[in-house]
């Protein structure tokens, strides 16, 4: 009926401090800020998009700034780790040294998932992981920005597997496999609990969801350093409309097609409460800024442009022009 989902599109998380967030993700992790805009559902707060050189789908890690966000009480029914892809195993040694240099809380290089990884936390406790593409044969990564403080050969090339911690595995599996078309790939053990790996499309590092059932944990209470939602890639608006119709046919509550200007979206929650988005690959981030100046000014979709003065007046200034 329609094409398989193509893999991760973006992951959106919560920060309390846009300035420190910008400094960490651009100066420490070396990602490019490809769009500084606002949360279209609440234009009083920033929405920051970090990615490869031009924000190719599958490379975007985004943040909503919520200045009054409290702490996150980690637990189940959550997107518990966001992973970021690098070229190969050797690159992880560079990152281990870089994380230490910037006093970033990090673990040792590990291979529990079948790939070399290094887990770390940002200044708000956001749970992150670098994962090696050494043996990746699936979805291709993006291209690091050549003006990043991190040399291109060590740069982050996109989003890796998304890790879910859920209270009832079967509920999540039902949606992933029976509705979204993911297929079970393999299993491994992490912290004495089994993790089940699912993949879609071409598979590989950029198209996997890893799910661990933890009935021993409380439900997560989100705040700063938590993940808001994960989005999966759809080719175009025609394909997305098919998904809208399909979810309606299945009587799964959803947002319907939502215009986000940089892409079009569809939102719904799976039974464990995790928010999923399906998002089109285009049109992308260069419709209102040219490639050389992505992320340098506050970009607003045309339907918000008349409100620019009011919107800017509510935002704390954030200099991203350098």
UniProtKB/TrEMBL annotation:
This is Ring-cleaving dioxygenase. PANTHER family: RING-CLEAVING DIOXYGENASE MHQA-RELATED (PTHR36110:SF4), RING-CLEAVING DIOXYGENASE MHQE-RELATED (PTHR36110). CDD domains: PcpA_C_like (cd08347). InterPro entries: Extradiol_RC_dioxygenase, Glyas_Bleomycin-R_OHBP_Dase, Glyas_Fos-R_dOase_dom, VOC_core. Keywords: Dioxygenase, Oxidoreductase. Pfam families: Glyoxalase. Residues 7-133, 158-281 form the VOC domain. It comes from the Bacteria. Transmembrane segments: none annotated. One of its GO terms (molecular function) is dioxygenase activity.
